[in-house]
Amino acid sequence: AVVSTQSTGASLYNDRGQLHRLMGDTVKALEDVERAIQLSNGQGKTAVQAYTQRAMLHMRNGDEENARVDFERASYLGGKFAACQAAKLNPYAKLCNQMLSQAMEQLQ
């Protein structure tokens, strides 16, 4: 294994979670990412990465609401990618985008 089960480093769990996610093992990915969040106390760069990964796992499972919450958490901690994704999933932003698209179509 890339990371032994005795490792306690948040970053190592996050990295292994990413590896599991990329290999398609979402169950193990989620376990490792949640452990990374716990060990990081939800703070710092590792937490940004772990919240972002967990959000991506939620998206993969069709759970946009929990994905949005995790993207917002990562964004609050400084994650730029997460901020963009959170904005896309914001229900008010979606509504505004739909209204803007309709208005643009009517102007054409």
SSE string, helices as H and strands as E? HHHHHH
**SS-based class:** mainly alpha
Helix share of residues? Answer: over 70%
Radius of gyration (Å): 17 Å
Mean pLDDT: 88
Number of DSSP-assigned strands: 0
Discrete helix count: 6
Residue stretches low in confidence (pLDDT < 50, at least 5 long) are: 3-7
What coarse outline follows from CA principal-axis ratios? elongated
Strands, helices and their partners?
Layout: H1 10-22, H2 26-40, H3 44-60, H4 64-76, H5 80-89, H6 91-107
Helix pairs in contact: 1-2, 1-3, 2-3, 3-4, 4-5
Q: How would you describe the overall organization of this protein?
A:
With 108 residues, the chain is mostly helical. It has helices at 10-22, 26-40, 44-60, 64-76, 80-89, 91-107. α1 (10-22) runs parallel beside α3 and α3 (44-60) packs antiparallel against α4 (64-76). 35% of the residues are buried.
Notable traits:
108 residues; mainly alpha; 79% helix
Q: What can be said about this structure in brief?
A:
With 108 residues, this protein is mostly helical. The protein contains 6 helices and no strands. It has helices at residues 10-22, 26-40, 44-60, 64-76, 80-89, 91-107.
